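Notes to self, Membrane protein:
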Amino acid sequence: MQNRSITFAIIIIVSPVLFALAYYPDSFSLSWNQGRGGFLFAMAFVAAELIGIKTIVSQKRVLMTIPFAVAVFAYLISLDFGLREYIQEGAKSYNVNLIHSWTWMWDFVVMATFVIAAVTILFGKRWIRIAPAGPIFLCGSAIILSLDAFFPYDTLGPLQYIVPYFVKANVGIINFFDLGTAIARNNLMFLKGEHGSMALQVFWPSAGVHSVIIYSLVMMAFLLKMNIAPRRKAMYFAIGIAGTIGVNMIRIFSLSLFVLKVSTNPVEFEEFHGIAGEIMFLPWLFAFLFAVTAIETRRIKKLSA
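result:
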């Protein structure tokens, strides 16, 4: 009964995403600010944390989550019947600069609210220790989209501050390996390669600063539920930050390499730019969390043997 209840709960939580995937298949882009691709990773977090748990959940609690799922279904359907236009019109009232980020933000706000409501109904206040990663990933994505909507490009100074250092490091790598001609100037890169020249202006989202924020939120929630020494938690957190920064450096380098070796066509570059970040960061995040779990599980088994 317990396993069936948890399985049913997972199906209910995932069902709005499956519906969106069927109803709006083209909206599931891997780009963080151009679609619902993040929903899939959030649901993977939810499933990974709930499968196999020993917490008893009554069928009554599971059934109580259904109306919230239905509400998300209604929201998704309503987008095609004027709600999307209403949301876009609302952007003008709040002086939003990037309407697309504003629009996608509300999708993540709705989904985050639903998932938090569902796990709260299922587990009460204990949800923060049982299944925090999915909800916090969704909340983090909504926060990042809101920042991008209200403070696009380089208008948010604190997040943009680190970008010139990333740019200089990237240019240094290009010149060291003689991959082409690269010049750095603040957040600008002037690149010249096999297919011509191109200037790239790097803003904090393109530099992956948003991934550091999302990693920090998810990792803090993940470590909160782990029964390990604070020193080990701090160690894992620091290693993850370093790894995420490394992934971001690879992200910028891959964009530069595309210009130097593949194409300087703006359309082709934007297509690659749209997926380059998330296709690197999210697998890294999953792999790192899995590695931490595996290491600590093995360590606990050795200590208890």
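- The first helix runs from residue 2 to 23.
- The two ends are 31 Å apart (CA to CA).
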